[in-house]
Amino acid sequence: MGKRAWISLPIIIVLLAGIAATVILGNTKIDATNVKDAKRIAAYAEPAVVQVYNYAVINWDFSAVEAFQYYAATEQEYNYLGAINEYFVATEGRSYVGGRGSGAIISSNGYIVTNAHVVDATRKNDDELIMAGLESTASEIADIYSLDPSLVYAYLVYTLNFTSIQRVQKVVLPSGEVYDSDTKAFGAPIGEGKDVAVIKIDANNLPTLQLGNSDAVELQDDIWVIGYPGAAELRELSEDSQIVSTIAAGQVSAKDKKSEQGSPLIQINAAALPGNSGGPVVDRNGKIIGLLTAGPTEQLNFAVPSSTVQEFVAQSGAKNAPGPVDTLYREGLEFFWAGYYEEALDRFQKVEQLYDKHPKIKQLISESREKMGQNKTYWPKYKTYFYIYDGVAAVIIIFLIIFAFVLKPKQRPQTPEVPESPPEKGTE
């Protein structure tokens, strides 16, 4: 091996090692496999799960109650009318029909899927609402004062005069923002048909969840139910706590159930309470495979499959696709969990620029900054420099190969040997 080769080979080896290093570093994978499924699902899904309020406020003129009490013929009549009067003084003459449930945002411009029975109250006509208002008020008064509900109902019918009805349909986002909403597609309450509705709020750049394939669900697949159980209102929770959703884990118990009307249902064993209705049931990938609907017990529940939900999404004109906030947010989470806090902070700040009400983003930005001292170097962001190095190194390697092994060194021309001159002949 010539002198050129001995000089060139070490340089070529160093350059090749550098190229190999750039390939390895440039293709570094984000490893966040240490994050548990439940944590990942909650982080992905909770920003897109909302509370849906749908109710009618019935206003009554109850001025006759006190007058009738004054002329009560019996003590029982006096006591019943007194309880009714006290109740309406406290409620300012109002009754409420309806309630609240949960839902999931499926498009960044404000389309939300929920149960039809969650948004059914405001679709009733005035007569239906008045009747429902009398029944619910009678039941509530009877519970509060330990009275016979049928007698309370009779006194209400006899003494109250209806004045007006106000219909309310609102959505509360995890950020605490409150929006009016409109119903864009409606099935039928459970027991009457497909329990799905699509509603819309006027907002943009919202976090979303994607609809999965419920037909691919298998028995005992892990699922998670996310929503706002009504039991939370019975506890002494702070106002902030009331806008924090809950997540319950479970499995698919049966996939071929049907309602009495023949609508398909998925049976699950995850715990759920009133208020969870309409909330998403998500799979391991964080996609919606159903919407929770009514069940006979907390541990035996049913979900309307996403294949049915898709029908109503199509009717509404909604486009179920990830928005820019979703992409940046999920990228940021993966970087954060893997220890690349600089890249995570960059994504989270971009999310904040697009949607500063995102419920998780300020906390994540703060935590990313706090952990910056532990930041790992994310080499793929230097790919452009790696490509430049690889190109220059390749040119140098080619040159050295040609220089060492192809080109032959020029040989100096050899000077022919001149024979020694014979001694000069002298003269004698």
Describe the structure.
By secondary structure, the protein is α+β, with helices and mostly antiparallel strands. It has a seven-stranded antiparallel β-sheet with strand order 5-4-1-2-3-7-6. Strands 8-9-10-13-12-11 form a six-stranded antiparallel β-barrel. The mean pLDDT is 88. It is rod-shaped, with a radius of gyration of 37 Å. The protein contains eleven helices and 13 strands.
Please give the structural blueprint.
Blueprint: H1 3-26, H2 37-45, E1 49-61, H3 63-70, H4 75-91, E2 94-105, E3 111-114, H5 126-145, H6 149-159, E4 161-172, E5 178-180, E6 182-186, E7 197-200, E8 222-227, E9 246-258, E10 264-268, E11 280-282, E12 288-297, E13 300-305, H7 306-316, H8 324-338, H9 341-354, H10 361-370, H11 383-406
Helix pairs in contact: 1-11, 3-4, 5-6, 8-9, 9-10
| Number of beta strands | 13
Secondary structure category = alpha+beta
Spatial extent as radius of gyration? 37 Å
- Strand order of the biggest β-sheet: 5-4-1-2-3-7-6
> How far is it from the N-terminal to the C-terminal residue, by CA?
61 Å
Q: What does the main sheet amount to? A: 7 strands, antiparallel
Number of helices: 11
Overall 3D shape: rod-shaped
Mean pLDDT: 88
- Percentage of residues in strands: 15-25%
Order of helices and strands: HHEHHEEHHEEEEEEEEEEHHHHH
Percent helix range: 25-40%
- Runs in which pLDDT lies below 50 for 5 or more consecutive residues are none
